[in-house]
Amino acid sequence: MITFQNVSKYYDYQTVLRNVTLTIEQGEMVFITGPSGAGKSTLLKLMYQAERPDEGDITIGDFHLASLKESKIPLLRRNIGVVFQDFKLINNLSVFDNVALALRIRGIKEKDIKNLVSNSLKHVHLRHLSDSHPKSLSGGEQQRVVIARAIVAEPVVLLADEPTGNLDPNTATDIIKLFREINLEGTTILIATHNRELFRDTGKRVLKLDGGNLIGEEIG
Amino acid sequence: MSMSYSFKSAFQSLCREKWINILSILTVTSSLLMITLTFFTLYNIELFTNRLPERFSMVAYLKNTLTPEEIQNITSTLQKREDIAAVKYISKEDALTELRQTLKDSGYILEGLDENPLSTSIELKLKKDFVTANSAKQISDDIRKIEGIDDVYYGEKIAEAINLLKKSLRNTSLIIFIIISTGVIFVIYSTVKILFYRRKSEIEILKLLGATKGFIRAPFLIEGGLIGFSGGTLGIIGALLFYFAVTYRLSKVIPILKSLAFPLEILVLLPAIGIILGIIGSVIAIGRLRL
Question: Which residues are A57's β-sheet partners?
Fold first, then answer.
């Protein structure tokens, strides 16, 4: 379960998130929406501790982020899969090695890595491109590699920041389908997006942010 | 931690950033070559000076009034000492014969002597560890106190010179080693720091994926070690080329150079020193950076 308790975040004199309180149940798939600058990315960054909250507390499973020591941040991040808007792939590594990196960081043995990466790439329909390098792939394919890397270690929570921001509508629909498949396997998923088409008719909860305030929620 | 990933990553970085690494390796090579040449010189001088104690001797002159039994007693006393390796009795006649052989063509100087003016003596060879100025003086003072000994002579200045030479060579070599090692550490420190900044975005990704500091640092430590190892290995090749050039080419002009020995320990020591200095340089470079 994920909880935000009166969480606020300020950059200089600007409030990015104000007094946000929310709960996300285990296995839930939730969309966070709002215009640019609403605080969607910050909300996700607070969860994987790329940013620290100025006020309030966040819990993710057994992790209490307000009192989390800096040395424990890598452990928290190994429990969370993140799909970054700008992909964050390492260009001089192959698709296979980019995905395998998430496992090597966790100290998984090389003999197991081959199977796990292969399965993960199969999940995103990219097994045939495992020897390619990110630069030779299309935006949609790169996004799939990022998803494969995020799910390969079977994290408890998957966070996706504008995962379809750089993609055409058809590819975007495919990516959302993929997230739904992953969610069906029990992974809690949070997707930040400003594109309302993505959650229309999904039947999933949508949290609405505006100017750093959580202004309500609806079912997509 | 995945060591195979760390090694792979270090090797990939060595190839990817080849120019900066080649430059670093060549600098380390020339520095380690200088250490080798210093060690090479010290090694050969040590070998030479180690042979000097074998030639170093002390002579105890006996009083002319001693009976053969008394001489035998003195010889036995001297043989029992733990600082004396060999004892040789030289009679007056033997001393004169030896003197004649030494004088060769100038032997006529001794003609006209009615009687043998030389004294009976005992030549003493000291054990290697006791060929020092202090020990030799102590031994000579002790021997002088033995009843029947008239005087003791030893090459006091030679013993002092040998020790002084050894001591200053060791000190100079140590200073050279420290200065050059510091230089090597600094070169590797700078290289690893540059490599770190060039991979900053990759490191950011690793951190976001949950990599520990150890996981991020390991490839840089390995890379520093590899630069040091490569420098050491090339240094050996340089040192061997130098050795063969000196013993085969230069020895035709200066024959004594042919007797120079190449310390085989260098073959293992130099790459090992390279690795150690490389890792130290990397540890300082990466340890100071905030991850």
Answer: A5
State whether residue A106 is helix, strand or coil.
Answer: coil
Chain B residue with Cα closest to A81 = B209
CB B27 within 8 A of CB B187: yes
Residue pLDDT, tens place only, B99-128:
878 777 776 777 777 778 888 899 998 887
Contact A29, A204 (CB under 8 A): yes
What's the order of all strands across the beta sheet hosting A213-219?
A: A80-83, A157-161, A188-193, A29-33, A205-210, A213-219
Instruction: Using a CB–CB cutoff of 8 Å, tell me whether A83 touches chain B.
Output: no
DSSP at A38: S
The confidence score (pLDDT) of residue B159 equals 66
Predicted-complex ipTM score: 0.90
CATH number of A1-79+156-220: 3.40.50.300
Place of tokens 């909860």: A205
- Which chain A residues have a beta carbon less than 8 Å from that of B215? 104-105
Confidence of residue B202 (pLDDT cuts 50, 70, 90): very high
| Structural domain boundaries, residue B265 | 3-51+169-287
Nearest one of B150, B162, B193, B218 to B9, comparing CA atoms: B218
Cα–Cα distance between B92 and B88 in angstroms, integer?
A: 13
Alpha-carbon gap: A220 to the closest alpha carbon of chain B (Å) = 30
The CATH number of the domain where B143 resides is what? 3.30.70.3040
CA separation, residue A115 to residues A85, A101, A129, A182, B1 (Å): 27, 14, 15, 18, 19
